[in-house]
Design brief:
Number of helices: 8
Radius of gyration: 19 Å
Shape: elongated
Oligomer: single chain
Largest sheet: 6 strands, mixed
Structural class: alpha/beta
Bound molecules: 1-O-pyrophosphono-5-O-phosphono-alpha-D-ribofuranose
Strand content: 25-35%
Helix content: 25-40%
Order of helices and strands: EHEEHEHEEEHEHEHEEHH
CATH superfamily of the largest domain: Periplasmic binding protein-like II
Distance between the termini: 37 Å
Mean pLDDT: 96
Length: about 220
């Protein structure tokens, strides 16, 4: 039995679609219910529906063999896992954002306060990459509020369409990282269940390559 931790929501749907395209029977995972463990003896697949930020934890401890999770969560959680495939979907960017008036002037503000749901990514970017010390304020959502209401000068957050920023008079000031969904594997499972996991990784990689080639042909 292979246990796959899915991020409840849109990523889970897309992950199931991809596994199906790769030749796996994922009907157990599509069951409409509040059950958090969905398994099928016949296919040897067990899906667990986890909160996205917990997926790396389940996989690191081996409670799940495989996980599908956003790169943002992986960067924030910093877990000890194999990251084996960039699935391409769930694409967005992790950015430093703030008022349009700060464009090109970010480095001129000393001792900035930076609000974010991602304190570890924020620390790694400002203190690690930019060698700048900042005050990090952890929020749990609607982070765009912080610079509007004077809680912080800037934020570090996910930008997908850019609509939330635009409608709140904010803009991208710097790009921290490109984000998309990734497949991660537990280090022990990779060895102990190699016969099941490697073919699955291969089949998923082939599907991703086909989709990437289609996108390139369509000029996307
Ligand atoms: C995310 C993110 C931004 C928004 C970006 O928030 O934190 O606020 O989506 O998307 P956009 O560029 O397409 O507008 P989410 O909807 O997850 O809710 P949250 O504010 O509670 O984090």
């Amino acid at each position: 039995m292979i246990t796959i931790a899915l991020s409840k929501g849109r990523l889970a749907e897309k992950a199931l679609d991809l596994l199906e395209a790769a030749g796996y029977d994922v009907s157990a995972g599509r069951e409409e219910s509040r059950k958090l463990i969905l398994e099928d003896e016949k296919t040897g697949l067990r899906f667990i529906m986890a909160k996205p930020s917990d997926v790396p934890t389940y996989v690191e401890y081996g409670a799940a063999d495989i996980g599908v999770v956003g790169k943002d969560t992986l960067l924030e959680e910093g877990r000890n896992l194999y990251e084996v495939i960039d699935l391409g979907f769930g694409a967005c960017r992790m950015c430093v954002c703030g008022p349009v008036s700060l464009k090109g002037k970010l480095d001129q503000i000393p001792n900035k306060r930076v609000a974010s749901k991602y304190p570890n990514i924020t620390r790694a970017y400002f203190e690690g990459t930019k060698k700048e010390s900042v005050e990090i304020i952890k929020l749990n959502g609607s982070v765009e509020l912080a610079p509007l209401i004077g809680l912080s000068e800037v934020i570090v957050d996910i930008v997908e369409s850019g609509r939330t920023l635009k409608e709140n008079g904010l803009d991208v000031l710097e790009v921290v990282a490109d984000i998309s969904a990734r497949v991660v594997v537990n280090r022990v499972s990779m060895k102990m269940k190699e016969a099941e996991i490697l073919p699955m990784i291969d089949a998923l990689r082939k599907q991703v390559a086909i989709r990437n080639a289609q996108k390139a042909a369509e000029g996307k």
